[in-house]
Amino acid sequence: MTLQETIKLDEMYYMNTFGSRTPVQFTHGEGSVLYDTNGKAYLDFLAGIAVNSLGYGHPTLVKAIKDQAEQLLHCSNLFYIESQAKLAKLLSDLNNGGRVFFCNSGAEANEAAIKLVRKYFSDQNLHKYEILTTYNSFHGRTLATLAATGQEKYQKPFLPMPEGFKYMPYNDLDAAKASVTPETAAIMVEVIQGEGGVIEGTQEYIKGLQDLCKEENLLLVIDEVQTGIARTGKWFGYENYGIDPDIITLAKGLGGGIPIGAVMAKGKAADVLTPGSHGSTFGGNPLSCSAGLAVVETLQKAGFMDKVLSNGQYLKEGLKKLQQQFSFIKDVRGIGLIIGMELDIKIPGKQIVGLALEKGFVINCAGNNTLRFVPPLIIKEEEIQKLLEALSEIFTQKRKEDTL
Ligand SMILES: *Cc1c(COP(=O)(O)O)cnc(C)c1O
Question: Which of 137, 226, 282, when mutated, tests ligand 1's pocket best, judged by the most ligand atoms within 8 Å of its CB?
């Protein structure tokens, strides 16, 4: 089908939740390159929003999915599932112990984390249910995770929100301390606010939150949906902060493109979700867990993580050099291969995204007018070099037009 035919069907039959989408239809990809219906090639620095961690057509992942599809796609959780048990062990080892529950998305993983927090305290007959989250966060689109998401614009049409969430400014430890009440049960944060514009939590803040949780008997929940599974060059984003959270949530990159989410919990929190208290039909099914195993085992190969780090460094330094040349670049931030470049509001990020697309580069614009770079983790240095050159051309052109 041509792009125009797809657009027509979409406009007639698909709920218009995504507005006017970028008028491109990808047909296939290879490595970090995507191809559209016109045969045009694009270097991908978005990876389906931090999902396609092994890029496109990765032989290990493709084989795992093919083999599993031939054997058994789905099986009820009434039965034991080999790939589910194996992936649970693997993730538990990487997270230094604890248990896992699998679901199908980031929102669902956070939803499970919220339930876990509430049951943890109600099991102890404690009236602690409130979860502190931060402004500018993003935790998902279900009602509870929307309530956890401290952004009014997402919540407004769906009021009233489920109770039990309180917001505090990000990177403000004093505000966190002041927000704790006897009803507070947990703090839930991203170590880097991804959708919010790649805002890094400071060392002092993230460590301080862990100390606060210990002092006040709160659970620390880290939403690793975007930062987890090697995105920052470590298995989990929290490792960059030397903390040990009680609960983490995963999704996006874990299945390399196959939908899978996970909530992981340690210590006493690991045994809270008991028979009947939670479940999922699709969660942890053989297909998604086989994909997850293939992704994690590939990332575990010697040298892979080092490459993520060195390529991330290369990208960040290249963007910082651009910042020195163009005054409308306000900031470059991020860790590993989640990097943001904040632009002055005079230069709409969306416009830059469009110009990059014309040149054959897929990027996007997150909160705070910030260009976001979350390429496949297999991206190569020479591919990053190409992006940097293209951005330099675009910015030079922009400066001429706007005489900035
Ligand atoms: C994307 C994202 C979510 C939501 O994940 P879905 O799979 O879209 O439900 C939650 N938290 C963070 C940090 C995310 O980046």
Answer: 226
Report yes or no: 311 and 318 within 8 Å, Cβ to Cβ.
no
Pairing of strands 370-373, 338-343: antiparallel
pLDDT over 80 at 402, yes or no: no
Beta strands in 104-164 (DSSP E): 130-134
Topology given in CATH for the domain delimited by 60-299: Aspartate Aminotransferase; domain 2 (3.40.640)
Q: Where are the domains of the chain?
A: 60-299, 302-344+376-404
Q: For ligand 1, is residue 225 a contact (CB within 6 Å)?
A: yes
Distance of CA 36 from the midpoint of ligand 1 (Å): 26
Helices marked H in 14-142 — which ranges? 47-50, 59-71, 82-94, 106-122
The finding on whether 226 has its CB within 6 A of some atom of ligand 1 is yes
Tokens of 336: 């590993």
The confidence score (pLDDT) of residue 116 equals 98
Q: Residue 20 — pLDDT band, cuts 50, 70, 90?
A: confident
- For ligand 1, the distance from its centroid to the CA atom of residue 246, given in whole angstroms, is 19
pLDDT tens digit sequence for 80-100: 999 999 999 999 999 999 999
As a whole number of angstroms, the distance between CA 16 and CA 20 comes to 8
Average pLDDT, the chain: 97
- The CB of 251 under 6 Å from ligand 1? The reply is yes
* Alpha carbon of 213 to ligand 1 centroid (Å): 24
302-344+376-404: what fold? Aspartate Aminotransferase, domain 1 (3.90.1150)
Does residue 138's CB lie within 6 angstroms of at least one atom of ligand 1? yes
Q: What confidence tens digit (pLDDT) does each residue in 103-153 have? A: 999 999 999 999 999 999 999 999 999 999 999 999 999 999 999 998 888
| Residue 295 contacts residue 258 (beta carbons within 8 Å) | no
